[in-house]
UniProtKB/TrEMBL annotation:
TM annotation in the entry: 316-338
Organism encoding this protein: Electrophorus electricus
Sections of the chain in a coiled coil: none
Domain Ig-like: residue ranges: 208-299
Name this polypeptide is given: Ig-like domain-containing protein
Length: 424
């Protein structure tokens, strides 16, 4: 889940307008036991469209709810009812498999363990044309990557030795790999573009960045200042920022970057810093380009140090950052606990059975469990899928398209399904 920031060196000339990138991701998180921290639940499921909350479910409220007004207006009641049932089923699946992984790793049940699954896709929209960029289907356990899907080669990647048995078993199920690839590259993109159309008024409203340049005492060298460029309040999140000296961009390896981070109002911020000599009198500025701008924003540093005389950073900057810092503090706690997206092994051989819900996708069950049946939920069999059916949508239907049948309209669920358990 790392971020790669592509920085282009600019020397005063203007590049073509940035194209828009869009993403749709679903993140499921399960804890091995409940904890008493506010806002953190034993199971959560979150949909994100361009990193904005799309829908949400937690183990306390037990209901999938829209997080955007346009989702509430556009999606029918049946969508939310099916989504609620799907996520309740997933909750049970995760509960079973967190326990399986804890035993597999020889971990103590008295400790907190976390299993997370993330899947989705990213596209680029340029002059009305849609280009698929990448699809992600990945799992981790206790903050360590466990399994991820390589859609280019239709196979699972095991970054740790403990995941090798799972990789081999899952790669043997070629039809599941074919479905996963198809979902990531086609169905997910269909849903993403559909949601973009539904929410175009809010999603495509571009907000320009406010850009600040300021300096404070370096914390590592008393003879230096840390010069910072801050861009905040912009949407969408793709942005180019350069710290310049005499209108020439400094090399990126000299800079410290925060990466693009969320504010608490669905906008974003980015900071880049460099240490300079306190006695230096060079002309520095911040050069920012964003899709909301016709011309780049250039903010010059005034040559002052904000805290050299005990003063604090400008109130305007503090005001803009308070909400961000609070948000990041909460996110930091959650990430610290929840950073995992994992998928582990399966002990018994599996067999496919056609689903009993009239859908097209396969169902994977434990052949020797004695509990599973076609379409059974994980609460009945560890070999079942989170929704109770495999190869299809978590709404309880399978097959492929957003409606649960090929070529249908999005009346079902936009999420992928996982069909294997972590039994060993």
């Amino acid at each position: 889940m790392g971020n790669i920031v592509l920085c282009v060196l600019l020397f005063g000339f203007v590049l073509p307008t940035l194209s828009d990138k869009h993403s749709l991701y679903y993140i499921y998180t399960a804890l091995s036991k409940p904890i008493t921290l506010p806002g953190i639940y034993e199971f959560t499921a979150l949909g994100l469209l361009d990193d904005r909350k799309l829908d949400y479910f937690n183990s306390q409220n037990q209901t999938k709810v829209p997080m955007q007004d346009w989702m509430r207006e556009k999606m029918q009641a049946d969508y939310w009812d099916k989504g609620t049932q799907s996520r309740r089923s997933k909750q049970q699946w995760f509960k079973v498999n967190v326990d399986i992984l804890t035993k597999r790793m020889n971990h103590s049940k008295s400790d907190l363990h976390v299993l997370q699954w993330r899947h989705g896709c990213e596209i680029k929209e340029d002059s009305g044309r849609i280009q698929f960029l990448k699809g992600i289907d990945e799992y981790s356990y206790d903050g360590q990557e466990f399994l991820s899907f390589d859609s280019s080669n239709s196979r699972w990647i095991a970054p740790v030795q403990a995941a090798e048995p799972t990789k081999r078993k899952w790669d043997d199920v070629s039809i599941l790999n074919q479905y996963t690839k198809g979902y990531l590259e086609k169905e997910c993109v269909d849903w993403l573009t559909k949601f973009m159309d539904y929410g175009k008024e809010s999603l495509r409203k571009h907000t320009p960045p406010a850009v600040y340049a300021f300096a404070k005492k370096s914390v590592t060298d008393s003879n230096k200042l840390t010069l910072t460029c801050l861009a905040t309040g912009f949407y969408p999140k793709d942005v180019t920022m350069n710290v310049r000296k005499y209108r020439t961009s400094l090399p990126e390896d000299l800079l410290t970057s925060s990466g693009v981070r969320p504010n608490d109002d669905d906008t974003y911020q980015l900071r880049k810093s460099v240490d300079i000599l306190e006695s230096e009198k060079a002309d520095y500025d911040c050069y920012v380009r964003h899709s909301s701008l016709i011309d780049p924003v250039i903010t010059k540093w005034d040559g002052k140090c904000n805290d050299c005389s005990g003063e604090k950073i400008q109130s305007a900057i503090i005001g803009g950052m308070v909400g961000v810092l609070l948000t990041l503090a909460v996110v930091g706690v959650i990430i610290c606990i929840l950073k995992c997206r994992n998928k582990n092994g399966s002990k018994a051989p599996h067999r496919y059975q056609p689903p009993n819900d009239g859908s097209k996708g396969p169902v994977l069950t434990d052949s020797d469990s004695g509990k599973g049946s076609s379409g059974s939920s994980p609460s009945g069999s560890a070999g079942g899928s989170p929704s109770g059916s495999a190869g299809g949508s978590p709404s309880g239907s399978a097959g492929g398209s957003p409606s649960g049948s090929a070529g249908g309209s999005p009346s079902g669920s936009a999420e992928i399904i996982t069909s294997n358990s972590f039994c060993t």
